[in-house]
Amino acid sequence: MKWINHRIVSGMAVYVLTHDITASIATTATSVFPDWIEGKEYDRNVHRKTSHWMPLYAVPALLLFAYLYFSHCFINITAYLFTSVPVTTQTDLNKIYQHVLNILFSGSDLSNPHLTDVNFILNLFFYAFLGPIFHILEDAVCGKVPLVSLKKRHGVRLFTVGSFKEYFFVISFIAICIIIVHKGL
Ligand SMILES: [Zn+2]
């Protein structure tokens, strides 16, 4: 899949699941990581091997998920950053910056004693790990990737990279996401 399409599909999927634009941006940013780490030169001995090995990203993501879930520290990052502060004037904007700085540097936010800056950053990390996970799943519909064992690769080829079918797939995916968000499903 083309990088732009990896970004669009991964970012939209996270937005539909979380309604959290900050989480979505974190995933979008890392969604090309498995290709990026391979370097610019295409090398078929390297492509879609270790860099696309699912457990490398799925294990840390699962651990983070379990920790955040069971310690009740999963947050909607955007809502948290902008808690009850309407964005209207410069004073309000200053309040938001102050709020963000408090979370990042003073250790915790008083409105949620569980939520330390570490937990806040762990939320961001969780969504950053989702980027490569979505990337590998997306590659698995246009080729083969190592989902479990590094020796065995799985996937189906619904379309070839950069083909008309790929763009059709992405546009259909965007349409479905918009409908889901619009209908509030
Ligand atoms: Zn890839």
Task: Write a structural description.
The protein is mainly α and 185 residues long. The chain has one domain (3-183). The protein is 61% helix and 4% strand. The protein contains eight helices and two strands. It has helices spanning 3-18, 21-30, 33-36, 54-70, 77-81, 90-106, 117-139, 164-183; strands spanning 108-109, 112-116. The chain has a two-stranded antiparallel sheet with strand order 1-2. Strand 1 (108-109) and strand 2 (112-116) form a beta hairpin. Helix 1 (3-18) packs across helix 7 (117-139), helix 1 packs parallel to helix 8 (164-183) and helix 2 packs across helix 7 (117-139). The longest helix has 23 residues, at 117-139. The protein starts with a helix and ends with a helix. The model has no long low-confidence stretch (mean pLDDT 85). Bound molecules: zinc ion. Zinc ion binds at residues 34-35, 48, 52, 135, 139.
